[in-house]
Protein 1
Amino acid sequence: MDGIPLGPSYTWSEARRLGVTRRQIHADGVQLSRGLYLSSAVEPDLAERCSAWAKVLPADAAFGFRTAAVLHEASDSESTTVHAVMRPRRVLPQRPGLTVHVRRLHDEDVVQHHGLRVTSGAQTFLDLAALLPAPDLLVLGDRLMGAGRLHPDDLARRLVRADRVRGVVRARRWAPHLDGRAASPRESLMRYWLLDSDLPEPALQLPIVDRWGRQVAHADLGYPRWKVALEYEGRQHADSEQFTRDIDRYSLMAADDWLVLRFAARHGRSAIVDRTRRALVHRGWTPEAS
């Protein structure tokens, strides 16, 4: 469609108004929904698809739920279905590939993200609290904070307004434990398992100092009172340079009497909680000491 400025996405009526023939639309466009097309020249990623959907949605609509989580870079799970949130109305848009949720959103519940209206980090966390199991919710909250999309004060204000909203009890339960310093979803999951046990709450990204007060390492999770550190070994630790650095870190930590527990993806809840408990007991922890 040389010379006709349609852009990456367009509607049938928009293209026809600009003089594009039916044959040209069928040849170029990838149909997202009735009368809505994405140009075959662009990568059909979620942001492009949302930009297309925005052309046929009401002005007050915002992308939310799992769609917002992906747009906020807090989730890697990209669905073919796009989720939109809008205020109540007599007739809601009903189109294949689009799921509509009704919410009475305040101005602060919506942000602009790359030209799209998207539910805020706080609203996204609250909405998904009704759908996600608690471990996944903690992972989501950590990732929203780590990506700079969620601030504790904003979340606290949103939860104050959330009386009787589905999922609010779970959201309030885990909101105080969110931390953007988690280096990976697996670290967040490990922390959830520990928080959900009878063990004390671990510190996150714990600096390890030697006898002269110099920082020689840091631990993913740890208990400075009992000098127990927990490390999650992801795939990056198989790199030869990283492996060498790890040897230095662990030997320095051991030299200063730190007990280091190393875990990988194969270790589940029972292994992590049980071994951490045994290490803490070995170092003098008792349930009464928590």
Protein 2
Amino acid sequence: MSAFVRFDQVKKVYRMGEVEIHALRDASFSIEKGELCVIVGPSGAGKTTLLNILGGMDTLTEGKVLLGGEDISAYSSRQLTAYRRHDIGFVFQFYNLVPNLTALENVELAAQICREPLDAAGVLRSVGLEHRLSNFPAQLSGGEQQRVAIARAIAKNPKLMLCDEPTGALDYTTGKAILKLLQDMSRKNGMTVVIITHNSALTAMADRVIQVKSGSVTGEEVNASPVPVEEIEW
């Protein structure tokens, strides 16, 4: 059976005048459906470029990227827009909530652009915010705002959840709570989750670990016994 996500010899070159910057060099890896995958590496290693290409926010120079058997690297600009809208959920380090909308309205806003969205209030309840539906972002803690951002991504009912340093702006305790939520989503709901991080301690929670350095995938490992987030320290 073919992998759910597959990168095949992906190269990304940025050109600035006569200068070429090789952000990715022949990157190849795969992720199975329902896995929680951690992509780890130092700053500037190419992690965000990988995520942006997988999320349809950037295009590759050479190679191929497949999701569920679909060659997204061959998509037109219009197809990529539909792909981002319907198939991908994004969670970033900063929450990007609309400040003059309530938590519920922020999640409903995302749900409006999708084919088969989930109930916004139900998703907020599932992330522990049943008492915060009518609060505005400024009335929420950082962890609560990130939970709204995750609920917004879940409500799209995406095929794939992409998380770019989702705990980077949070304290240790709150960050662990967010990671537990992401791990539970993968284990209990069968959602495929990809987290990029510079923190190698987080690899213990993953079903699959992909190591990136200097634009190259230097290792890919399947973790037979992922550790519950509660047991991880960093």
Protein 3
Amino acid sequence: MAYGRIAFLSADVPAARDAAARLVALYGNANADDADVIVALGGDGFMLETLHRFMDRKVPVYGMHRGSVGFLMNNYEQDALPKRLAEAQKVHLRPLNMAVETVDGKVSRALAINEVSLLRQTRQAAKIRIKVDGVTRLEELICDGVLVATPAGSTAYNLSAHGPIIPIGSNLVALTPISAFRPRRWRGALLPSSAHVTFEILEAEKRPVSAVADYTEVRDVKSVEITEDTAHSLTLLFDAEHNLEERIVREQFLP
């Protein structure tokens, strides 16, 4: 598919800004609010920011690596960009919806493309009850935290917490404990992406917990509900040789 109007956005780092200037000189720069495709220059963090910013537009985003971590990015090359965009493969992602109630009764919501994570706020371990589709599956998890990751986020924080890597298109999410103390041998679970996950914070005032959806944080939470957000579908573009699904499969065989 050919894309006529290309918008270039860059992270606020020299490598990304310089790359954007060179690409704009070669191809021009459309307004991001009505472009046919957005080219994001930076790392995975900037890619997440871009996807969040234009989530309601449903515009495809093509990333080029000019930052630190580039799992969601293509290699940076400035030549023949329109051809690369036209031949790029599409990957569709759905975010997670996080609904949080705090100990003072406030309710807030946020969307997560990578993961929703719960983290202890103090020196004391968190105590968390876990329900899936209304059924209590773990009465009490004593831990540093717990997270729910999408396939795209399964290679990020989830992998660092020893969670499973999930292939794109598998319609699964990972439920992964972070430094579980009890039950010590529980390593988490794979759930259908349609699952409704509820975390209830036990002793919430004594053992405060924060909830984070990508980079949106809510502190002193009482309960957190996580569901698949069916209202949004995100489209990422990848060069055939850097297909995201292939990267996720390959990641599972790295030493």
